[in-house]
Design a protein that fits this description.
single chain; 2-enoyl-CoA Hydratase, Chain A, domain 1; 3 domains; 8-stranded mixed beta sheet; 8 strands; coiled coil
């Protein structure tokens, strides 16, 4: 079995440094089972420096890491070296002392996901996302001492909320700011990449086999009488990791379902807007010139746009005006030609004088307003 994975270092002083560098997840750079095992193995009161440069990742995996940090018996100090975004930002707010590099960035946003299936499945998906947001809002609210609903209103509004170290300190997200070597990056993406590249993996040792004596130094294995007992504990850790993988699959399915549901809802809304606009244009309440204006109103507030269209008075169509003005051959001739055709033929004045109602109708059809005769 491996003595450690690459993002954990131990100093001769006994201090353990855990690097949460990269995405969180069961198959990602930062795995909850590894982090939890190291934290559980730490002696009571042992100094643990947890350094973060992560864009986040799986919510359930992140919550597992969050709980492991909170429940650890070690003296944990958290440092945001580069980026603590999304779930990584929540991990940083676990209640332990947290410091932030003056070049670092913190980001919070609402839970995202997707799902597919029938209405009941979609409702369950939405309920699960809402429950996750409730949990995360409680975590953040306890850190910055505001109500969970205020957290949702401010940070779970669909936007990414980035904070500099100064802004995070002013908002009580972190306890202090520490100096760091200057970096060239300005954007969160640049900062994330630079700090990840700085992480040096320890050189592989020629003998990475840990015997039972060494293993029993870890709290989880202290009571193991023999190798078989140690293997039982390892099996338990693997089972916990498998359960976490199952949760990952469920979250992925929910994310897919939610995305498909959102696309279907938007398509239905677009079809309903089109039907209202088509009907209004047919009866003369709007025309091609001002149609886009009413479409924008419908997109902003469907009910307001619907009411605005309903308040408009329908206008008679060109065909109705022709019927009212008679069915002579001359009227038919006027009807068969467009405004532009009559204009090119120089017959608009003739139309105005001989069939004023037809002239008005064609004018309205062309310009969307009444002519000044």
């Amino acid at each position: 079995m491996k003595t450690q994975f690459f993002n954990i270092e131990r100093a001769d002083t006994g201090t353990v440094t855990i690097y949460l560098y990269g995405e969180t997840g069961d198959y990602a750079d930062v795995r909850c089972a590894h982090v939890a095992a190291e934290l559980m193995a730490a002696a009571p009161g042992a100094r643990i420096d947890l350094r973060i440069n992560s864009i986040g990742g799986e919510v359930y995996s992140g919550i597992a890491i969050y709980n492991a940090i909170r429940n650890s018996r070690g003296d944990i100090h958290i440092y945001v070296d580069g980026v603590a975004a999304s779930m990584a930002g929540v991990i940083a707010l676990c209640g332990r002392p947290v410091s932030m590099s003056k070049y670092a960035r913190l980001m919070l946003h609402s839970v995202s996901g997707g799902c597919y299936g029938d209405r009941k499945e979609l409702e369950r998906c939405l309920q699960e996302i809402a429950a996750l947001e409730d949990s995360l809002a409680d975590i953040i609210a306890k850190r910055i001492n505001i109500e969970p609903e205020a957290v949702k209103a401010k940070y779970f509004d669909g936007a990414d909320h980035w904070m500099t170290a100064e802004e995070a300190l002013a908002g009580h997200f972190v306890d202090s700011i520490y100096d760091a070597d200057p970096i060239d990056g300005d954007t969160p993406e640049d900062i994330y990449t630079i700090f990840n590249n700085r992480l040096r993996k320890p050189e592989a040792k020629s003998n990475d086999i840990m015997d039972l004596k060494e293993l029993k130094k870890r709290a989880r294995f202290a009571a193991c009488a023999d190798d078989n007992a140690a293997l039982v504990e390892i099996d338990k850790l693997e089972a916990e990791a498998a359960e976490s993988a199952s949760l990952k699959t469920k979250v992925t399915n929910l994310e897919t379902k939610l995305q498909e549901q959102g696309a279907a809802i938007e398509a239905a809304k677009a079809a309903e807007r089109k039907a209202l606009l088509d009907a209004a244009q047919r009866d003369g309440r709007i025309n091609a010139t001002n149609r886009q204006t009413f479409e924008n109103i419908l997109k902003t507030s469907f009910e307001d746009g619907k009411a605005a269209l309903a308040s408009l008075k329908p206008r008679r169509s060109v065909m109705q005006d022709i019927v009212l003005s008679g069915s002579s051959a001359e009227s038919t001739e006027w009807h068969n030609k467009s405004w532009d055709e009559l204009d090119r033929a120089g017959r608009l004045i003739e139309l105005r004088d001989s069939a004023p109602e037809v002239f008005k109708a064609k004018f309205r059809e062309k310009f969307g307003r009444e002519p000044n005769l």
